[in-house]
Design a protein that fits this description.
Elements: H1 2-26, H2 30-36, H3 38-51, H4 61-64, E1 75-80, E2 84-91, E3 98-99, E4 113-115, E5 120-121, E6 136-138, E7 145-146, E8 160-162, E9 167-171, E10 185-187, E11 192-195, E12 208-210, E13 215-218, E14 231-233, E15 238-242, H5 245-248, E16 253-255, E17 260-262, H6 267-270, E18 278-280, E19 293-294, E20 300-301, E21 305-307, E22 316-318, E23 325-330, E24 337-339, E25 344-348, H7 357-360, E26 363-365, E27 370-373, E28 387-389, E29 394-398, E30 411-413, E31 418-421, H8 425-433, E32 438-440, E33 445-449, E34 461-463, E35 469-471, H9 475-481, H10 491-503, H11 505-526, H12 531-538, E36 545-546, H13 549-555, E37 564-567, E38 571-578, E39 581-588, H14 598-611, E40 620-625, E41 630-635, H15 642-646, H16 656-675, E42 691-693, E43 699-701, E44 720-721, H17 735-740, E45 742-743, H18 745-761, H19 777-786, H20 796-802, H21 806-822, H22 833-843, H23 859-868, H24 879-884
Parallel strand pairs: 2-4, 3-5, 4-6, 6-8, 7-9, 8-10, 9-11, 10-12, 11-13, 12-14, 13-15, 14-16, 15-17, 16-18, 18-22, 21-23, 22-24, 23-25, 24-26, 25-27, 26-28, 27-29, 28-30, 29-31, 30-32, 31-33, 32-34, 33-35, 36-40
Antiparallel strand pairs: 1-2, 19-20, 37-38, 38-39, 39-41, 40-41, 42-43, 44-45
Amino acid sequence: MAENVSLHVLVRLLQSLVLMFLSQLVVPGYGQKTALSGDMRTMLKVRDDLLGIPENKVILQDWSSQDNPCNWTRVDCEEIGISSVVVRRIDLNHRNLTGPVPPSIGLLLNLTDITADGNQFSSIPQGFFQAKQLRLISFRNNLISGKVLDKLTTFQSLRVLQLGQNLISGRVDPLARLNRSAVEVIDLSGNSLQGSLTTFSGFSRLVSLRLGRNQLTGDLGTLEELTSINDVSLEENNFNGTIPTSIISRMSSVNLSRNSLRGTFTLREIFVPGFITTLDLSENRIQQVAPEFQSPGNQSTTESALDFFWARGVRKITLGGNGLSGSIVSFPESASTFNLSHNMLSGNLPEDTRATFYANVETLLLNNNSLTGPVPKGFWNMEKAATMDLSGNQFTGALPGGAIIMPSLQALNLSRNTFSGPIPAEISNLMRNFNLRTVDLSFNNFSGPLPRDFPQGENYTYLFTGNPGLCTDDDFFRKENSLTRCSKPSRAAVIARWAGAGSSLGVVLLLTTVSLCLWRLKVVKDNEMDEDLVRAVNSGLISTRLIPLKELEKATSNFAEETKIGEGGFGSVYRGFLEGKKVAIKKSSDAVLHLVQGKQMFMNEVQILSGVNHPSLVSLVGCCMTKKHALLVFEYVPQGTLAEHLYYRRGEGLDWNQRLKIARQTANALSYLHFMADPPIYHRDVKSANILLDDELNAKVADFGISKVVPYQQFSTDHISTTTGVEGTPGYVDPEYYVNFRLTDKSDVYSFGVVLLELITSRAPLDFRRGERDNTLVKMATNLLRTNALHLLVDPMLMIVFDDNEDVKKNILSVAELALRCVHRLPLNRPDMQQVAREIEALSSVQFHVGAYKSTMEEEDMDFIWTAYPAASRGSPSPYERATGSSGSMEFRFGFGR
């Protein structure tokens, strides 16, 4: 009996040893465990499906370099028990993958999340729909077509469905068969879907519903049933009926713009304090608010009026493009964006001493109404305002002199009113020392001489025409705005002036002699190099050359007007010869060093610029700082700006190889600033006018400096907040920046995306002549690419080879699709500059046979180009071209638009 027990124990011991040995083979660690599990083998099949498409091989190098899927980029695994590992989440966002979605993903039966936004996937095969445990499906911004929604009913655990910005067609009706008690987020915006909101009846947990830019019809009554709904975006459909105010008042974000909604409502109904923060009802058929409202004093009235006293806590209110009539009783106290443009509002604007509106507003659009009377004084004290458009009304009175406190203002449009009196010098001060760059005061009754100190240069746009009483002796403004020359003083006045001057001539001569001696001593002192800057250079803190002011004066013939080649926020730019070499010298305006900490800002800028070293960045040669002036000396880049070449104001046009090279070099320079500079630098004003070209047409990015440096203490965040107002140039600026005034690296990515579109199209980033649908290049490109109309987007000069070379056509399409990812509305959905640089590097690795097309063009081909694309003509640039470096655009010339 004892022997049997011993034998039994021995057998159990041997079994345990065998199991331990096998476990070491199967699951010695996480990596080995995954190598033999079913999900791991399936992931290898997913990889093979993706790599079977040649374009994906370079992109997925990190997947192909090892055979353990759990170590691949953005693949999350989970242990089940002691011997199994399953794949839970796959993130393929913004990897520029192409082809169909791998059907083998459907074999991952434990997969819960799949995200693949911002790729070029063309379809979702039937096999994908076997992964029935999926809770999150996101394929936004792809090229997926077909009737995908018919197959989604297999996902009964689905909580988040995001297929926005694709080419999906069919009806939304099949979604009614999803598990209505599970779905929380639906985004199908930007497709070609049909149907009505009744499909979503009974979705009790639905929080966010985004169906904008489709072909949906019917009324909005179903929204009343969605008791959990918080975010609705239904813009650009064909919805009709009335606005369900009771449910809207419980949401935080509502966009119902560009439909056919009608009816009346009271603002008090909608703006329940503590709920809604963003409301966009623009371009519908709403004619008035409810005629009865109760004012804060509890006095009823039957006057049709808009009382925004109730809109407390609301950040954005957009009601433009309706038929609203009546007057404005009060302004919202917290709104940063306030748009009532293109309505039929009348009456005087209220002073509104109750609200803090004047302190918070950033974008104010009241244009194209029938508003009257003077502009309230508070309007000239909006410290955060970046855009103010009051054009197309009946405002009267004079503008306040010396009382305009708007340091963040970038664009001011007061055209087509009846303002009178002189133009205050304070407006020119805002342009010289702050951010104001575009001023339209045309077609009013302004009179008197134009202030003399308006800065000129490519960064500024002025419109003063249509003011018969306005005059100037400045030839530039007279020619551009059809102004008269100011009348000369009468002969009697001249004689009287000389007589008065003669009586004190002796005293003046005596004082002059003394003053001249003192002045010479002061000049010597003022022109001495700043001691702090000298110490910083000598100690190695700043590694650049100090250049005496005398040498720079000699290099530019004492900064003669004919050597001036530009003007910007820092000051004027001059061309000069220093030791036999051409240089570009930036000379500060008088106000720069007078700013608080202006000297320290300049020294910080020199320190950063002297530490930047990249072949595609304009390099710093040296600097100079005296008591009165701060000067930066850069290498001279001889072939002008990319904008001049794209808009045929210089050179003979750029072929596709040259454009690709410029894109690659610019992307590499920005990637260097973002990821290699220490501290990182955000450019803030990426545009074709800030990309210079040398004699070999190599790109040199210019105009980055201290205002773009990311502070060390903010490295842990994804943004920095600016207090200096809106940066950048209209048409290139990240739209998100106008909403929250937060600057991120993705703002540069957006601007670079616009430059990519310029390289493809040679079209201006902003042109209101193209109509509301296409006034920005981003909207125009999005609309044309969505309808597979790339040929309507490409620069006509490129079309000569585009039609005959399939490789060029495919390459241009890839660049265009990358550009659209860069200009995605949401910063989180944009790639970073490192990713962009890598993708352009891959796209520009092939040289296309396109170089000979210019020399072989027939004269009739050129005639076609000039006729089809007037911006290609080599005439003198418009005021907008000088202001932005772009051609063919009439930005702000005829109002700001909606």
